[in-house]
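For the sake of transparency, this paper describes our internal protein records without simplification. An entry from our holdings is shown next, in its original layout:
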Amino acid sequence: MNGNLKVLFYLKKNQTKENGSCSVMGRITIGRTMAQFSAKLEADASKWNAKAGRMTGKSNQALEVNRKIDTINLSINAYYKEILTNRGKVTAEEVKNAFQGIASVQETLLKVFAEHNETYRKRIGIDREEVTHKRYCNAYRHLSEFLQKKYHVRDMSFKQLNFAFIEAYDFHLRVELKMKPNTVLRNIVPLRKIIRIAVNKGYIPTDPFAEYKPVRGKSVHRSLTGKELKTIMSTNFHTYFRNLTRDMFVFSSFTGMAYADIKKLTVKELVTTDDGNLWIVSARKKTGTVSRIRLLDVAVQIIEKYKNDRTGDKVFPMPEYTTVDINLKRIAEICGIE
């Protein structure tokens, strides 16, 4: 709920002690929501200014109580602003819980998502891939845009998530953004991972999306005919990166190597045997198993073609996966291949 924050301090006079002191209580009001809490302070009832919500005079007790009241007030205001900034709305109970340490305002969806992506980025080249990191970043961007469009907030507490949320997000991706089933899945899977992290860290007790079953697209794979492959090989596509994409596709066709394996292929993995044949001896990206591939003339010619375009020890100046994907679709259109 949105609304102005009001904090009031008062005495619990129905439990006045023999020395005339009472417990100091606090009341947080935001819009129509209200929450009370104990300030864990005691004040002399005879020196309490109910209108000001603090003690009068300059006694040691008055100065100490008023100082602590000011500190509590500042803390509550800080939590109020932080939650409101992150989520776009806030209740008195949420601010009270944050102030008392019952719930951390840091445990929000996009914040944990961003932390995950940053940790992932630091592991690129060690045990993580840049292309996968970009997918996580794209998924984060779509989720952020959805929160702002649907809920008018910049972030959301994990405890606010429910099954209706994932249904609405699925609808947003599938219908409003017109994504294909497998593209929807590529955005949902990272979100599900963040939810698992939240469950494992105790931010939420269970997965609110446990019953969600995404609609998967039916992938239809077919092999190119020899004629279609020859058409691709002989066509000039007039741009460097489109021709490069074509050559990488042809190289893959003649070696059986996947995109990730071609991208990480280094010069030291090219081995010429005593009989003059060129081989690739490398470890597969996914399995780690060593593969030995004898290169046919077509593959050797492609390696030679890009010899002067190398950066570092990589054999090819391999484009990013998204660029390859877009170019392959355009190549298929130009060559009349469905």
